[in-house]
Amino acid sequence: MNTIQHPPSEESRQKDSLLGVSQRLPPANVQAEQALLGALLTNNRAYDRVSDFLTGAHFADEINGRIYDAISRRIEAGQLADPVTLRAEFENTGVLAAVGGTSYLAKLLTSMVGIINAADYGRVIHDAWIRRQLIDIGQDVVNNAFGARPDLDGPDQIAASEEALFRLATEKGQDGGFLSFDRALADALDIAQQAFNRSGDVVGLTTGLRDLDKKTGGLHPSDLLILAGRPAMGKTALATKIAFSAARSLMEEARNAPEDDKPKGSVAIFSLEMSAEQLATRILSEQASVSGEKIRRGDLGQKEFDRFVQVSRELAQLPLHIDDTPAISLSAMRTRCRRLARTKGLSLVVVDYLQLMRPSVGSRAENRVLEISMITQGLKALAKELSVPVIALSQLSRQVESREDKRPMLSDLRESGSIEQDADAVMFVYRDQYYLQQRQPKETSYDSQDKYQTAMEEWQRKMDLAHNRAELILEKQRHGPTGTVHLFFEGEFTRFADLDMVHDI
Hints:
505 residues; Rossmann fold; alpha/beta; 49% helix; DNAb Helicase, Chain A; nucleotide-binding; 2 domains; DNA_helicase_DnaB-like_C; nine-stranded mixed beta sheet; single chain; DNA-binding
């Protein structure tokens, strides 16, 4: 009698597949490990061919890894590493008992195929280790998805997986190493050539502020810039101004370029404090010269509204991208920046502001200072990896308020240790008008009308001098001079601009 065979169900196929994976042996090449160790014991100079990418942890056989580490320690200490010298180290430890004792060292010599092949053996060992790590990451992904880490939701699990892959990709032996000096010189010459061909003082990406560009030469790739200030100083407004100016410069550059050679570039803003709509409204308010307060209330005349709409159509072409994810992690930010760089090109990253960020998923800092240190180091690494300037806004501590002179200093940075250290430039926004407004004389504080009037006149004089003025204090700059840049600030539109001290009549 014939029996009808039904095709296996999807569930059974998945079980069979998972069973097949579990029954497979992890990638390893013990023969290559023994051949490499034999080559090292025969001639210690072979160590130079593998030392920059290989460690004992990369060996599949733990005993072989221990032997490699012992060889490494002796060679780096300037000592001879051979079966005779290593015998004394392993003789009484019992480490080699499972492989037959110290005679295993002599056996390794017979496994050597050739010293010249040492680097190839090392690469085979390292490649097998990478594959084992990928298997471990894959298992973690599956286990987390099944609920092994209930503290991580779906997006956090994706971010954690991406972070693990990133760490593996940047592990010792993947990239890096020395760059020949002639190559470095050629790269430096290319940068100098680009600067020479450009007109004006801007070498990098423009900030839209003439005097700031003169001091810095623009925004340079791989730089981490910190823009700090007390609340209400205008940090976000200034950062938005810089981001907008950079995006407009990129758009104009693309328009003027030949059709077959259009440059790719865009500006990314990570707004952790304000929504994308609020940030867009602020840019529109600045460019259309329409008060943000009027926009929010809908108190617009027909001419103002028409101008508002016209400007919005023009700004829609800007290569400007806003991510308003609250409390975004460093790993998620890195992933999104890489994606944007790959699809549309990336020229500038703005983070508002770094104290609202979280470190990479899976990393746990002991305290807030260490957490901020991990974030700033990560932002600097991101700037170097993608070769773009990163501007990170930062809050200042309240100790500023306790001083007579409210101008910020480097020590005022909150959780300042690594912020100051990792940054290539640190800038402070300061507006004297903000503090003067709080110090308006009160009539009840004076025993005569004359004294009150004198105090009011002096206060008004100072207010007139500080009116619509701001200072951008360049406290640290790794590649140029420091000093103060005086700016124009229009409070109605929260707009920064160049301050013209001399006017033509």
